[in-house]
Structure formats: structure tokens, C-alpha cells
Amino acid sequence: MAETTRNRNSGEAFVLLKGDRPLPHDADAEMAVLGCMLLEPECAIDLAMARLNFENAFFTPAHQKIFTLLVRLRNEMRRDAIDLITVSNALTAEGLLEQVGGRAYLSQLMNVVPSSANIEQYVEIVRENAVLRRLIRTGCEVAERSFDPQERSVRELVDQFQSQVLELTQLHSGADMAHIGEKIMGAVEYLDKLHNKDESVYGIRTGYPDLDGLITGLKPGDLFVLAARPSIGKTAFAMNVATNVAMGHNPRPVGVFSLEMSTEQLILRLLCSRAGVNLREIRDGALSHSRWNDIMAAASSFKTAPIYIDDTGTLDILALRAKARRLKQQHDVQVLFIDYLQLLKPASVNKNTTRENEVSQISGGLKSLAKELGIPIVVLAQLNRQAEQSGSKPKLGHLRESGAIEQDADVVALLHRERDTDAGIVGKDTEGREAELIIAKHRNGPTGVVKLSFIPAYTRFESRSPVSDDQIPAGI
Q1: CATH number of the domain within which 274 lies
Q2: Which secondary structure element, helix H or strand E, spans residue 112, and what is its range?
Q3: What is the DSSP string of 396-438?
Q4: Count of CB atoms situated within 10 Å of the CB of 274
Q5: In the listed set 152, 173, 194, which residue is the last one of a domain according to the structure?
Q6: pLDDT in tens, 327-363
Q7: Is 199 known to be catalytic?
Q8: How many domains, in total, are found in the chain?
Q9: Helix (H, G, I), strand (E, B), or coil: what is residue 449?
């Protein structure tokens, strides 16, 4: 049976298995790395610093102390001033020289390798073993805390360990820092492709050309906040985008978390919108045979559409993160839609916590989830009553608990249109109503307004020409 204990030399927790096997390490590789750093500090120290910049990268405590000192000296003085004498004096000043084996051991390190030619290989061996030790330690913590969860809930523990495993993955594959000169031509190439409307530089297309032109599609890791007052159509617009992504010319799997509407209600909306059929016609028994065929055709197209819906109505941020990870793992979803933010609950309930702090926890959790999964997340949000009382178009400040949401979002889009009752609009439900999608925040690009048409009968938004009648030259 496995037993958790601690290694006296390294101070790291590990599992005693058959034969009391030690934690993974390679003393020779560690000595080779330190030898290279001492022998040729001008080329070896920076490389080792970049790749081994985490706690307990070295297994042997003496090696870790020497490495830490070399890094500190590198930050305090010129690289060419680092040699056997300066390192020995620094260790002596800190009372560490005898602990690491004395000056004789430092000399031995310098004699291990003839040059620093193979420093990258040595560093990689040390790094790989450090990651393995981290993995073992994480496993031990999982076992120990699972037996004694204390104040943490089971879901909090699961979320924490999932994040730790992801951190290990990133640690294992982490890239070195790059000089700008190595990347600059790639940036120029990107700008050239963007200028020439090359499809490869766009994110996931929303199906609305004007919107895609403004934000260049939905980008991996981005948090896209779609906000509006109730009954303006934010759910309809989000589902229109979801359908376009999942059933467009380049179909992508999408996940939908519907905290407000049931799956059945959402599917009815999707079906009628896709078929161009008014649900009222069906309820009144006024649907013609040809229109019913349109519904069946739409239903047939949805059968194979990669749309996955979760209508759990009482989700908290931890449960949503866990479900999203499974969706990504099982179905490789490329976009997540969440309807809507204010219905999500924080990870834990504290009566002394303000609503603003709870929303901050939720929005921060969604942003980190987007980065973790490497996909865009579209989350719907409510605007406060001032958005209507002011009599003007909505603004960023009209977001409920706006501080945290505005800070975490990469794009904030405010959906605006006049309600028929408010504006005295008269016309058939099948006629388009003017609507606007105001891009009020765009972290990596311009803001602006996207013109849309809303068709109430089909709960569908369509693109509208950005050119108004008074902009058309006379005689055309």
C-alpha cells in the first residue's frame, strides 16, 4: 500500500512504493548544468534561468542552493564577473559553502563537463525530472486532502487539482522567451494577411460579416461579453451565432450552458429561427404544409449539428468549469456560450461577501477558463435599469456589477434596439426591426457599431448594410 512521506534531502512529499524508490532525479545532469554555468556563465546562466525558473528544479538541496546563488549573482553583477572565487565568497558570506561541499566540490562541478556545448540537453533532463517530481507530489496531495478535506468542498478540491495538472502540462511544454527579432517577421506576415482578408488570420466566424470584420472573429482564450436589457434579444443573437458556428461552411462544435431556459425551449427557438417559422403559427394551428416541411428540413439539419446543451439551472462557477473541461475533452468544443452571467453562483457562499466580489470571482473564473481551454467564451450579461432610464444607447457603465466584468472581458458588445411598445413601431412580426451591436470594448482592436435587423417572429438577427440612405450619393 502507498504511503505519503517526505524525503529528508529534498523536502518534497513522495510515495513509498516497492523498494522505497526515490523521487526521479539525475545527479549527473544536475552537476553538468551547474558545471556549465560556472565554466561559461556568459552563455549558460541565462538559458538555465529561463528553463528552470520554478521551485525545487534541482533534487539535491546543495545543487539547488548553488543554482539559486548563481541566478542571484547574475541579476546583481556582470556575467563575466561570476567565477569560482566570487561564487565561493558569496557562499561563505551566507554560511553555505560547507553545506554545499566546499570549494573542492565547486571545482569538481567545473571539471564535470569540458564545455557548455550540451547545456540544453542537460537542462532538459533536469527539467523533465522536476516535472515528474511535481506530478508525484500533486498525486500525494490529492490522496492526503481527499482523506481529510477539512474546510474545502469536494468540488473545490477537484477544481484545484485539475488546475494543478494543467499547470504541470504547461510547465512541461513551456517555451523559452523569444527575442523580438525572431518574431517580428511573423507579425508583419500576420498584418499582411489581415490587410488582404486572408481567412487564416481570423478567429471563428460568427456569421455576421460586419462583426467579424470589426473583431476579426472569436479568438481563442477571449472572453466575449454580450449584454442587453431583458427581452432585447441577447439569447436570440447568441443562439444565432452558435448556429452559424456549428452549421456554417466550416462547422465547429459548440457548447451551450442555458441557466435560464430549458433545453426543450432552446431547441424550439433554434428550430423556428432556422426554419423561418413563427411559433405562434404552430400554436394557432395555422401552419401550412410547405411551412411544416421547412420545420422538418431544419430538424434534419440539426440532427447532426455539433451543438451540446446543458440546462442545469443552479450552476456555480466550479461546476461550470468542470463541465466545460469535459465538453472540451469529449467533444472538442471550439466555443462556449453561457446564458447568463448573473445567474451563475460563486464557488462558495459567504454572507459577508458583496455581490460585486461574487461577480468578480465568476468573471475571473470564466476568463481563466477561456485561457485554460484555449477557446473563446461568449457569456451573456444583464444591463442595469439605467440603460433604459437614460433614454440613450447603452454604455459600459450600464453593466451590472460592471467593474469586474469590464476588466476581465476582451470584448464587450451591447445589444440595442427599440422595443415595439416603447417606440410605437407598427408592422408585421416578420419585418425587420433596426438593431445595433455596440462594440464598447475591444482589447485588441477598434470599437464600433454593427448594424443588424431583428425579425421578432423568428427570433433571428440578420446583417444590415452599414450604409444609411442619407449616405448614398444623389442620382444613384
Answers
A1: 3.40.50.300
A2: helix 102-112
A3: GGGBTTHHHHHHH-SEEEEEEE--HHHHT--S-TTS-EEEEEE
A4: 22
A5: 173
A6: 888 899 999 999 878 888 876 666 667 777 778 888 8
A7: no
A8: 2
A9: strand
